[in-house]
Design brief:
It is a single chain. The protein is α/β, with parallel strands linked by helices and 549 residues long. Helices cover 51% and strands 13% of the residues. It contains 17 helices and 14 strands. It has helices spanning 2-14, 111-120, 158-170, 189-225, 247-267, 270-296, 301-305, 318-336, 343-361, 367-392, 396-402, 433-451, 461-481, 490-508, 511-517, 527-533, 537-548; strands at 25-26, 41-50, 53-62, 79-83, 101-105, 125-129, 153-156, 175-180, 243-244, 307-310, 314-317, 362-363, 414-418, 427-431. A hairpin with a 2-residue loop joins strand 2 and strand 3. The chain starts with a helix and ends with a helix. Belongs to the peptidase A22B family. Intramembrane-cleaving aspartic protease (I-CLiP) that cleaves type II membrane signal peptides in the hydrophobic plane of the membrane.
């Protein structure tokens, strides 16, 4: 399980910073803006009507030129749709268009020329069918003049345009369309629930990590009381299955995660998504199994304490054997039906279980390691969300999180909630790394507080958890201010979390202890252990004689 936890940490690091809401307004500084051609690129809904009945809805992108498209459906007038003749609309239409929307194909002349000719023919708008399935930004050339265009122009992907064309050729009834570009709500409930989910996951994982550490200390104290010689180190891995991160591994996590992210970006395809689904299911099964066994062992103590040897797996408790089939079936059913509307619930359950389990197993031993880990992740996040645009012409992190070049809604290493009150639909997402990496530091703070028997107010956990929640909240504020463009969440989370811990530690005079030792000073109260810890009197006297000589 420890190896799986490390692999899960790498996968989470690769998708740190993938907090996104979906792009509706596209700011593009590379596309020239000139008078009469300075609109933002906005997604536009094209609602079709056949014989007075509501038909299919399509999505296109508005042009740089022309008037701004209305944002409310009530304000959008229903206009008749007419197929252009000639189809490319690079010459005046043979028939006058009495106030309808003209459907044309892309090619053979400029977008602006098509719009001017359509407006001169009396059209109230123009829909241009792209030559491919992607959305293309319609711009003006720098030397263009006379751009006083008064009708909206919308580019449709090829499949949507062909569907509208089929309606015109196959139906004797009138076909009409409505064009409008609704605004997103200022705050969507999905972001609120996603924030609660992320913060709640960190709190639960931190509590479990601190509880496990306290159980280990209690067990050790019992052994000391009985006269057994044991080490005071309780978080050093070994048979306990706990993995402590050091400075080198903290830096290597980010290096390996970068390589993994590039591999995801270059190999992103249907078969690679299937591979990621398999990996996620394996990690999710182990995480869900570990969480369920930990919870159910409180009631089924005999089943949790009885073990049987299983080939290739070693000793496994009867409770684990009883829970495992359910976890496997749960993950397999999600993998099969993951594109169904409510599959996100199962994905979030598996993801949360995996994150909680990893935080319980992989631990930050002190603030020094935690600072190196989060600082590297901070730089990594900024580079792959923002700087990578100049190298790859798009944000690599966001492209991977969206699952570009596939039919999926995104890679599975994400928590997501559907935007229920958003007219555009879609999902609000957050990468595992934005929860797991800061969660390791918050869990360290809680273990430190419990080891030092500190109260909530006098400890570090409450303040670090609050700082994490505040940083994540600011991420969503920035997400809305940037019109849904993906944000590097660690850009906001890391300064708040690390800054709070370091400031409190410096103010209380415990920063050195937090930074290097990672645990408060403890005085051993067991006389038996003190006798074992001291050297024998004869040996001590011999040492004194040697030192005096």
């Amino acid at each position: 399980m420890a190896a799986s936890a490390v692999l899960a940490l790498l996968l989470a690091s690769a998708l740190a910073g993938a907090a996104a809401g979906g792009d509706i307004v596209h700011q593009d500084d590379q596309a020239p803006k000139i008078p009469g051609c300075n609109n933002d690129f906005v997604l536009v809904k094209v609602q079709s009507w056949v014989g007075g009945n509501e038909g299919d809805e399509f999505v296109g992108v508005g042009a740089r030129f022309g008037p701004k498209i209305v944002s409310k459906e009530k304000q959008a007038t229903r206009e008749p749709l007419t197929l252009a003749d000639p189809i490319h609309a690079c010459a005046p239409p043979k028939n006058k268009v009495s106030g309808g929307v003209l459907l044309v194909e892309r090619g053979k002349c400029k977008f602006t020329k098509k719009a001017k000719l359509a407006e001169a023919a009396g059209a109230s708008g123009i829909l241009i069918i792209n030559s491919g399935t992607e959305l293309y930004k319609m711009v003006c050339e720098k030397n263009e003049t006379e751009l006083d265009i008064h009708i909206p122009a919308v580019l449709l992907p090829k499949d949507a345009g062909q569907a509208l064309r089929s309606l015109l050729t196959a139906n004797t009834s009138s076909v009409g369309v409505q064009l409008y570009s609704p605004d997103r709500p200022v705050v969507d409930t999905a972001e609120v629930f996603l924030w609660l989910m992320a913060v709640g996951t960190v709190l639960c994982a931190s509590y479990w990590s601190a509880w496990s550490a306290r159980e280990a200390v209690t067990e050790q104290e019992k052994l000391l009381k009985d006269g057994h010689e044991v080490s005071l180190t309780v978080e050093g891995g070994g048979s306990s299955g706990i993995v402590d991160i050091n400075v080198i591994s903290a830096m290597m996590f980010v290096v390996v995660a970068s390589c993994f992210l590039i591999m995801l970006y270059k190999l992103m395809s249907a078969w690679f998504i299937d591979l990621l689904v398999v990996i996620f299911c394996i990690g999710g099964v182990e995480g869900l199994q570990t969480c369920l066994v930990a919870i159910l062992s409180r009631w089924f103590t005999s089943a949790a304490g009885s073990f049987v040897k299983v080939p290739f797996f070693g000793a496994i408790s009867y409770l684990t054997m009883a829970v495992s089939p359910f976890c496997v079936v749960f993950a397999v059913l999600w993998a099969i039906y993951r594109q169904f509307p409510y599959a996100w619930i199962a994905q979030d359950i598996l993801g949360i279980a995996l994150i909680v389990t990893v935080i319980q197993i992989v631990r930050v031993p002190n603030l020094k390691v935690g600072s190196v880990l989060l600082s590297c992740a901070f730089l990594y996040d900024i580079f792959w969300v923002f700087v990578s645009k100049s190298l790859f012409h798009e944000s690599v992190m966001i492209a991977v999180a969206r699952g570009d070049n596939t039919d999926e809604d995104g890679v599975p290493m994400l928590l997501k909630i559907p935007r229920m009150f958003d007219p555009w639909g879609g999902y609000s997402i957050i990468g595992f790394g934005d929860i797991l990496l800061p969660g390791l530091v918050v869990a360290f703070a809680m273990r430190y507080d419990w080891a030092g028997k500190k109260s909530l107010r006098c400890g570090y956990f409450l303040w670090s958890a609050s700082a994490y929640g505040t940083g994540l909240l600011i991420t969503y504020v920035a997400l809305n201010l940037m019109d849904g463009h993906g944000q590097p969440a660690l850009l906001y989370i890391v300064p708040f979390t690390l800054g709070t811990l370091m400031s409190l530690g410096w103010k209380r005079g415990e920063l050195r202890n937090l930074w290097f030792k990672g645990e408060p000073e403890r005085v051993c109260t067991h006389q038996g252990y003190l006798q074992m810890a001291k050297p024998p009197p004869a040996a001590a006297a011999h040492d004194d004689e040697d030192s005096s000589s």
